[in-house]
Amino acid sequence: MLLLAISSASAQAKASSIIISILKGPSGIAATWMLAAPPDTGNVKLEFLYAGSADLVTAKLISGEIAAGVLPVNVAAKLHASGIPLKVVAVVGNGMVKFLSVDPSVSSLGQLKGSTIHIAGQRATPDYLFRYLMAEEGLVSGKDYFPQYNLAFPEVASQIAAKKITHAVLPEPFATQALSLNPSLRSPIDLDALWKGATPFETYPMSLLVSMPQLYEKNPQALTALTEAYAVSVGKTNAFPRETGILAESFDLGMKAAIAQKAIPNSAYVFDRSARSRSSIDALLGIFITFDPQSIGGRMPSDSFYSLLTP
After folding, report:
1. Which segments in the chain show pLDDT lower than 50?
2. Looking at the 3D structure of the chain, how many domains does it have?
3. What was the pLDDT predicted at 11?
4. Angle made by CA atoms 224, 38, 263, in degrees to the nearest 5
5. Which residues are bridge partners to 211 per DSSP?
6. What is the DSSP letter of 291?
7. Are 232 and 39 spatial neighbours (Cβ–Cβ below 8 Å)?
8. Is 51 within 8 Å of 24 (Cβ atoms)?
């Protein structure tokens, strides 16, 4: 069921309004300051719709109800491949996937041979990132180690904190939540560092702000105002995690202030509109297409997907 909250007093958008989707949960936290002070777009009003999942954002983009939103990288690429004319506006979240363990002897991926690993997010970035890094160690999923996907993100966090499972792969803020519940829990393997060592890139993108023609073609001034406000919001989020957490809870973004405050420094919120980001996006999508081509629509995105990025 769609979780809605419109920033205006009216629940229905007027003809001069453009609706922007904000994902409840980690991806929405960096937009908190923009929600608190919506950008001035002249004669076009930006309104914000809160959605509980990327699937709901996808449906609203396809139907034309919203003009922009944040999506996982592979979901955005798959929509583009299917003919939906969305384009990347910016990378808004970089690598924040953590490996957690209750086993004090583990310090490398090679030591996980024969182990069961609980992974939050089957066929999503945490899954394929971990598969790729394990493959770099010569370990094959289902043969040398055994991924489990039967638990949702919060359940993985609570069960590894309670030592009911031994190893887990979790994105933020759920990794921080687990570590907060059990201070003896460890993150002994830095997946971000392993990615950096295996590829030419410092990090990998987790989420993209994307736009439909309603915004980038028909209302470019509104798009400019949106990007400027979003960039400022990301900067304030990183600079003021405590205040951001309080704001995020007040907007009912699905995270308590205390958890948000602890997770923000580990969450790699960015606002990168540079054309250079295409290389890191393509690198991540290359992993998806290796393991499951249909997860990104069967092919790499065309140049038009990236045409809004700045030189």
Report:
1. 1-15
2. 2
3. 39
4. 95
5. 68, 87
6. H
7. no
8. yes
